[in-house]
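User: Some background: our group keeps a shared notebook of sequences we're curious about, and every so often someone picks one and asks for a predicted structure to add to the entry. Today it's my turn. The entry only has the sequence so far, pasted here. Could you supply the structure so I can complete it?
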Amino acid sequence: MITLKINQQPHTIDADPEMPLLWAIRDLVGLTGTKFGCGVAQCGACVVHLNGEAVRSCVTKVKRAVGQEITTIEGLSANNDHPLQRAWNEADVPQCGYCHSGQLMSAAVLLKEKPNPTDQEIDDAMAGNICRCGTYLRIRKAIHLAAEMQKKEGGVR
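Assistant: Of course. Here's the predicted structure to add to the notebook entry:
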């Protein structure tokens, strides 16, 4: 048995330590907001935070996450009111929405590291996240909007 701390809650699971964290989160814990996209860390749909760092859960082994703080899209905010989530809605970012949990999780790390990113910094940070619908300009707009919201609300969440 392995215990993972996901979204500040302990979850004890019966998992192979070599299992990708993505499948532990989705299939064993039941948090399905994190998506499977490619399975080879190329699309970004599976991004979660491991101790505040954006990682590709499809290639991160469960054994690496033991004793660490894991945050999924479900844990980004209690009421879906993180500035990025609000900005995503205000900028009408989602089209199909499949990639957006990974997009949001990557953007959250960006804003933590660079509270007022330039277009180039956004593009660089988000380059590993693929959006099949091509909403990249709306994503960039939403990240700028979230940065402004955070500034007005007193900082990074």
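Suggested note for the entry: The radius of gyration is 15 Å. The chain has a mean pLDDT of 95.
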